[in-house]
Amino acid sequence: MTHPTDSIKLTRDVEAHLVPSGESITLLKGELVRITQSLGGNYTVLISGNMAQIRDENADAIGFKSPKEDISKNKNEPFTEGMVWDQMKTCYDPEIPVNVVDLGLIYGCEISEMDEGKLVAIQMTLTAPGCGMGHIIADEVKRKVNGIQGVDDVSVELVWEPQWNRDMMTVEARLELGLY
Q1: How far apart are CA 52 and CA 36, in angstroms?
Q2: In the predicted structure, residue 69 carries a pLDDT above the cut 50
Q3: What is the mean pLDDT of the segment spanning 35-62?
Q4: What percent of the chain has pLDDT above 90?
Q5: What is d(CA 180, CA 173) in angstroms, rounded to the nearest whole number?
Q6: What's the CA gap between 34 and 43, in Å, rounded?
Q7: Which of 10, 93, 126, 160 could make an SS bond with 131 (beta carbons 3.0 to 4.6 A apart)?
Q8: Using one digit for the tens of pLDDT, what is the confidence trace for 98-115?
Q9: How many CB atoms lie within 10 A of CB 89?
Q10: Residue 2 parent element (H or E)
């Protein structure tokens, strides 16, 4: 078992995103990384003094299995709005150990019927408008919600009004971050 302070040698080249800029980079096979956060299936790693995020589908490059994205345990289970919220709770900012729902970043979630399934329209914000990881976090929300049985399409709109502040976080999130 790997301890959080252990260095891990990459088993293959892997695409990642620098944190906080969001710039795409390739980490090379054999390079050493150290995991600083492992939440929602993604991994934030330290490499040569920089932080980078490795997405869940590339977990094998650091010796882990990729988690399954579809949250429907039973393919015959009827779609519910709760499934969407549960799936969004698996999405994290790579620098903050609290999910986007509990951070108060999800401003709205509307579900409508389409010919083949559901259209889920999500409005979300970021803790800071200049966050370079914003499009990556929004893409993760879209990708994971789109993995729900019965969802045909997902749109995620980044909005800036009202401006996010820490009072939008749940009590649990503030406790987790030591803000009480």
Answers
A1: 10
A2: no
A3: 95
A4: 84
A5: 10
A6: 10
A7: 126
A8: 999 999 999 999 999 988
A9: 16
A10: none
Length of the chain, please? Answer: 180
On the 0-12 / 13-18 / 19+ scale of CB atoms within 10 A, 178 is exposed
Concatenated DSSP letters of 151-175: EEEEEEEE--SSPP-GGGS-HHHHH
Residue 24's Cβ-count burial label (10 Å; 0-12, 13-18, 19+) is exposed
Torsion of CA 84, 35, 174, 171, to 10 degrees: 40
Among positive and negative, which fits the CA dihedral 110, 107, 173, 129?
A: positive
- Average pLDDT over every residue of 128-140: 94
Task: Give start and end residues of each alpha helix (H) in the chain.
Answer: 81-88, 134-146, 171-176
pLDDT tens digits, 119-128 = 999 999 999 9
**86 phi and psi angles, rounded to 5 deg:** -60, -40
Q: Please report the domains of the chain, with CATH numbers, ordered by start residue.
A: 8-62 (2.30.30.40), 81-176 (3.30.300.130)
Contacts of 1 (CB under 8 A, 6+ apart): none
**Does 151 score more than 90 pLDDT?**
yes
pTM for this one?
Answer: 0.88
User: What is the average pLDDT across 26-54?
Assistant: 96
Angstrom distance (rounded) from CA 168 to CA 32? 37
